[in-house]
Each structure stands twice: as structure tokens, then as C-alpha cells.
Recover the amino acids of this structure.
């Protein structure tokens, strides 16, 4: 049990080092909700199959909504970044 938790901590450390903070937080939440809490028997929402699927569906839905919000934010910010760089709106950076 101790070895598993140490490997999970090492995995989280690697994720935080490699990926942006926003994705690291999402992965940490997923690991805690679906792996660590059931191991510690602190997850009453995962006791039966239906509850697990419902939790998984809600979690994935929230991540998809967050991705959509990030995409919308990027669409609004990108023209400003290109304007600051002095490039016309239609050009892309290479």
C-alpha cells in the first residue's frame, strides 16, 4: 500500500513538472476522485456501478466545459496577441 502511494506521488510530481498548471490540477483531481479516495474507503459515491458512472460522467462533462471555456478565451485573446506582435489578424505565427 505504501509503495502504491509513493508511486502515485511520484506520478503526480512528474505530471506537475511536465504539464501546465491547469492540466496538472485536473489530473490530480481525477486521481484523487477515482483512485486515492476509493483506496482509503472515503468515497461513498463509488460504492455501486451506477454511482461510479454518474460521477465519471459529471467529471468528464466538467472537463469538457472547461476545455470549451479555455478555447473561447484563447479565441478572444489571440487577436490581441497578434496585434501586439504587429501582425495582421489573418497571419499565424510559425
Amino acid at each position: 500500500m505504501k509503495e502504491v502511494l509513493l508511486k502515485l506521488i511520484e506520478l503526480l510530481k512528474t505530471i506537475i513538472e511536465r504539464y501546465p498548471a491547469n492540466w496538472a490540477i485536473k489530473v490530480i483531481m481525477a486521481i484523487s476522485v477515482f483512485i486515492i479516495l476509493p483506496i482509503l474507503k472515503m468515497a461513498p459515491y463509488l460504492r455501486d456501478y451506477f454511482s461510479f458512472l454518474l460521477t465519471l460522467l459529471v467529471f468528464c462533462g466538467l472537463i469538457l466545459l472547461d476545455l470549451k471555456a479555455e478555447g473561447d478565451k484563447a479565441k478572444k485573446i489571440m487577436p490581441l496577441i497578434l496585434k501586439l506582435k504587429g501582425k495582421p489578424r489573418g497571419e499565424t505565427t510559425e
The mean pLDDT is 69. The chain is about 80% helix and 0% strand.
